[in-house]
Amino acid sequence: MANDPIKQFEINTIVPLENVAGLDLSFTNSSLFMVATVATASAFLYFGSANRGLVPGRLQSMAEMSYEFVASMLRDAAGSQGMRFFPFVFSLFMFVLFANLFGMFPYFFTVTSHIIVTFALAMLVIGTVIIYGFMKHGLKFLGLFVPEGVPGVLVPLVVAIEVISFLSRPISLSVRLFANMLAGHITLKVFAGFVVSLGALGAVGIGGAILPLIMVVAMTALEFLVSFLQAYVFAVLTCMYLNDALHPSH
Amino acid sequence: MFVTAALAASTEAAQEGGGAFPPFDTSSYASQLFWLAITFGFFYWFIAKVISPRIGEILETRQDRIAGDLDMARDLQEKADEAHAAYEQELAQARTTAGEIGQKARDKAKAEAEAERQKVEGELASKLEEAESRIASIREKAMAEVGSIATDTTAAIVDQLVGTSVTKAELTKAVGAVRR
């Protein structure tokens, strides 16, 4: 089943740690690519900032660009107070971006194509929002659910809607990233499978295989865009949710 | 009951290799969460402790340097402006000084010329006066002589015509009355 488009998402144990306190904590291909993602991103940022040049080189320029990209995103969304969350948002953005881009290599595993990973990251964001919101504002944080200037009769309805929308945030945040990565990789694999199976049919098949081949090339470019875009969206939404924790009165 | 049965069936299918969709295979969740916590935890720590301060410092240093350079440029500009103003002022001063000197020289020359003129005029006037007084004295002298000549002539005429001599005092008196 080399053509099975689902096979690329399978998790294979590399170092079995099958019964640690009753849990299977084996080091899998997923774990391997998490380590690779973190190692690559860390190395990029570390060596990018190692020279501390007044005039940046290429690598330093890229590292600074990613830093300023996230910093301005956070400052725009959550104001200068939001900058205390900068390391959090920056590490989220870089982690998701590098995990997505790693998935673009053939035969590589995509960490973010598993709902549990994206959901864990989303819960981390929402958990930070809730904990910081209550720590900073106490019960006033609940004012987040009561928009100002709503007529008294509508308040219960609006509050219900706000609560539901707040609760659906971690779901939408995680499913968006997960579904994009999953669907993109499945589509790529399916079209690539067409190329192979049509190519095996002889002269006519090879002619027919050109169309899906062009598709695959175009989709690959699109997937690179999606990889970046989803990391960006994840980071932007994180910034906006953190803004709620900082300024719940809006 | 159904749930556990379904879960058992799905895990069974997963163990058989095929059926279950890997992202929804709960058996791998613990491992994924565990390794995500480790890797992302390390990454967060690394960003917060090393990367973020470092890049922040680089950017700040650059900002400071640019701001410092701009300040220096502004200072130099100010100094240049000051020097220019001082130069302008000196130039204006020099101009007024030159004007004053010129005016003074002109005034002095004028005064000297005036003094010279007055002196010459005075000399001329005194010479004129002298000449006039001399003329007047000559005239008086001449007139006086005219009187004595007239007296003499009258005495001679009287002597010739009348044949009597008249005293000199009467003659002078008569001549004087006629001449008046």
UniProtKB/TrEMBL annotation, chain A:
Its main location: membrane. GO terms for molecular function: proton-transporting ATP synthase activity, rotational mechanism. InterPro entries: ATP_synth_F0_asu (IPR000568), ATP_synth_F0_asu_AS (IPR023011), ATP_synth_F0_asu_bact/mt (IPR045083), F0_ATP_A_sf (IPR035908). The keyword ATP-binding does not apply. Gene3D superfamilies: ATP synthase, F0 complex, subunit A. It is found in: Cell membrane; Membrane. Keywords: ATP synthesis, Cell membrane, CF(0), Hydrogen ion transport, Ion transport, Membrane, Transmembrane, Transmembrane helix, Transport. One of its GO terms (cellular component) is plasma membrane. The keyword Metal-binding does not apply. It is a multi-pass membrane protein. NCBIfam families: ATP_synt_6_or_A (TIGR01131), PRK05815.2-4 (NF004482). This is ATP synthase subunit a. The gene is atpB.
Automatic annotation (TrEMBL), chain B:
Pfam families: ATP-synt_B. It is a single-pass membrane protein. One of its GO terms (molecular function) is proton-transporting ATP synthase activity, rotational mechanism. Keywords: ATP synthesis, Cell membrane, CF(0), Hydrogen ion transport, Ion transport, Membrane, Transmembrane, Transmembrane helix, Transport. It comes from the Bacteria. InterPro entries: ATP_synth_b/b'su_bac/chlpt, ATP_synthase_B_chain. It is found in: Cell inner membrane; Cell membrane. The keyword Signal does not apply. Residues 99-123 are annotated as: Disordered. The keyword tRNA-binding does not apply. Its main location: membrane. Residues 103-123 have a biased composition (Basic and acidic residues). One of its GO terms (cellular component) is proton-transporting ATP synthase complex. The chain crosses the membrane at residues 29-47. F(1)F(0) ATP synthase produces ATP from ADP in the presence of a proton or sodium gradient. F-type ATPases consist of two structural domains, F(1) containing the extramembraneous catalytic core and F(0) containing the membrane proton channel, linked together by a central stalk and a peripheral stalk. During catalysis, ATP synthesis in the catalytic domain of F(1) is coupled via a rotary mechanism of the central stalk subunits to proton translocation. Component of the F(0) channel, it forms part of the peripheral stalk, linking F(1) to F(0). The b'-subunit is a diverged and duplicated form of b found in plants and photosynthetic bacteria. F-type ATPases have 2 components, F(1) - the catalytic core - and F(0) - the membrane proton channel. F(1) has five subunits: alpha(3), beta(3), gamma(1), delta(1), epsilon(1). F(0) has three main subunits: a(1), b(2) and c(10-14). The alpha and beta chains form an alternating ring which encloses part of the gamma chain. F(1) is attached to F(0) by a central stalk formed by the gamma and epsilon chains, while a peripheral stalk is formed by the delta and b chains. Belongs to the ATPase B chain family. PANTHER family: ATP SYNTHASE SUBUNIT B (PTHR33445:SF1), ATP SYNTHASE SUBUNIT B', CHLOROPLASTIC (PTHR33445). This is ATP synthase subunit b. It comes from Oceaniradius stylonematis. The gene is atpF.
